[in-house]
Amino acid sequence: MSHNRSMGSEAAMPIALSLLWAAYGALHSLLASTGFKRVVAARFPRGMPGYRLAYNLVAALALLPILWVLARHPGPWVWRWHGPLAWVMNGAALLAAGLLLSGSGYDLAEFLGLRQLQEGRTAGEDAEPFRISTLHRFVRHPWYSLSLVILWTRDMSLSLLVSALWITAYIVLGARLEERKLLARFEPAYRDYLSRVPGLVPRPWKTLSRDEARRLGGP
């Protein structure tokens, strides 16, 4: 009987994990939306300088139930890298992690919410200017691209595979939603940039030179 319950629990794991990821994505998208931030700014202007910091904290805490499920119910291995292929995958992940930690052209103080808190910003809209860093010359969303490299070069259990699929879907959707806001703020420069540089997967024939990036919005 206990064996049957265990089998049933493992069978239900992908569904439970999917529901948790769907709820996380909905919460994350709501809190990141310009409309919701405008409502908060109108009703609680004094709290807006700390909004981004609180948003990041809520996002981190909301991951805890998902991490608990991943730890308790990893499921069977779907694939594991061995031999030279493991070195290649781990090397790619380390390179991607290094580029992520370097900042990859992003303002980390702005991303974390420290700059907004320091400057006392009360507006609901983002204030970061349009910049094209070195990595942005090759893909429009380098942090997303690097995160996907790290994600898909790992050994993959069933629960990790379910999570990887949800994270990938959310990244693709999130990139599109983010670009709507960027188009509204930086038209026509961002539309030109969007037409000339791929979103997530680099293509050698679709890149910007340093001079082109500088003209559009580079440092």
Describe what this molecule looks like in 3D.
By secondary structure, the protein is mainly alpha-helical. The protein has one domain. It is 67% helix and 2% strand. The protein is built from eleven helices and two strands. The chain has helices spanning 2-32, 34-43, 51-62, 64-72, 83-101, 108-112, 114-119, 142-152, 158-186, 189-196, 210-216, and strands spanning 77-79, 156-157. Strands 1-2 form a two-stranded antiparallel ribbon. Helix 1 packs antiparallel against helix 4 (64-72).
Entry keywords:
2 strands; mainly alpha; two-stranded antiparallel sheet; 219 residues
What are the SSEs and their pairings?
Blueprint: H1 2-32, H2 34-43, H3 51-62, H4 64-72, E1 77-79, H5 83-101, H6 108-112, H7 114-119, H8 142-152, E2 156-157, H9 158-186, H10 189-196, H11 210-216
Antiparallel strand pairs: 1-2
Sheet with the most strands: spatial strand order: 1-2
For the largest beta-sheet, the strand count, sense and barrel status come to: 2 strands, antiparallel
Rough outline: globular
Please provide the ordered H/E string of secondary-structure elements. Answer: HHHHEHHHHEHHH
Q: How far do the termini sit from each other? A: 65 Å
Q: What is the count of helical runs? A: 11
